[in-house]
Amino acid sequence: MTADGATSDSAAVNPTEPPPVPLVNIANILTVSRLALVPVFLVALFWDGGHDTLWRWIATGVFAIASITDRIDGDLARKRGLVTDFGKVADPIADKALTGAALVGLSLLGDLDWWITWVIIGREVAVTLLRFWVIRHGVIPASHGGKVKTLLQALAIGLYLLPLGSWTDIPRWIVMGAALVATVGTGLDYVVRAVRLRAAGRAKVGA
C-alpha cells in the first residue's frame, strides 16, 4: 500500500474528525494578554505612592479591561470550539494572578484589610489543591455560584481601586461582604463536591 493510499484510507475511516484546535487562537491570545496586564496593573497601582488620583484611575481601567477579557475568552473558546489544554491551565492562572495582585496591592497600600485578602487567596489555594486531589477521578465543572463569586470579587476590587473618596466606603463594604460570602460559600460547596467525586471514583475502582 502506498503512502498516498494509506492517507486516503485514513481519511475515509474518519471523514468527520474535526481538525485540531490551533494553540494560537483568539481565546488564548486574550488569556495571555490578561496575564501580561498584571504587571502593568501593578505599576499603575503603585505609581507615585499608590494614591495618585490619575494613576488610580489608570490602574482601575487596566483592571477592568483585564477582567472583561476573562469573560470574553471563555465565551469565545466555547462558542467557536477553541478550547485547548493550554487554555484550561492558563485561564485560571491568569484569573488568580490578577485577583491576587489586586488584593495584595490594595492591602499593601492600606486600602484593604489583610484578613480579607487572606480569606480570598486562601480559598483559591484550597480549591486548587482540591482539584489536584480529585484529578484522577474527574473534573468538577464551574458552578453558577462560582461565576457569581468571580463577578462580585471583580466589582468589589474595582470599588476599592476607584479614587472616589470616603463616600464609597459603604458600597465597598456591602459588595466586598457579598463577595466574601460567595467566596466562602462556593469554597465549601467545592469541598463537598470534591469529596463526593473522590468517593464515587474510589467506589468504581473497588466495584
TrEMBL record:
It is a multi-pass membrane protein. Pfam families: CDP-OH_P_transf (PF01066). The chain crosses the membrane at residues 26-47, 54-72, 115-134, 146-167, 173-192. One of its GO terms (biological process) is glycerophospholipid biosynthetic process. GO terms for molecular function: CDP-diacylglycerol-glycerol-3-phosphate 3-phosphatidyltransferase activity. It is an enzyme of class 2 (transferase). It is found in: Membrane. Its main location: membrane. PROSITE patterns: CDP_ALCOHOL_P_TRANSF. Keywords: Lipid biosynthesis, Lipid metabolism, Membrane, Phospholipid biosynthesis, Phospholipid metabolism, Transferase, Transmembrane, Transmembrane helix. The keyword Membrane applies. One of its GO terms (cellular component) is membrane. InterPro entries: CDP-alcohol_PTase-I (IPR050324), CDP-OH_P_trans (IPR000462), CDP-OH_PTrfase_TM_dom (IPR043130), CDP_ALCOHOL_P_TRANSF_CS (IPR048254), Phosphatidylglycerol_P_synth (IPR004570). This is CDP-diacylglycerol--glycerol-3-phosphate 3-phosphatidyltransferase.
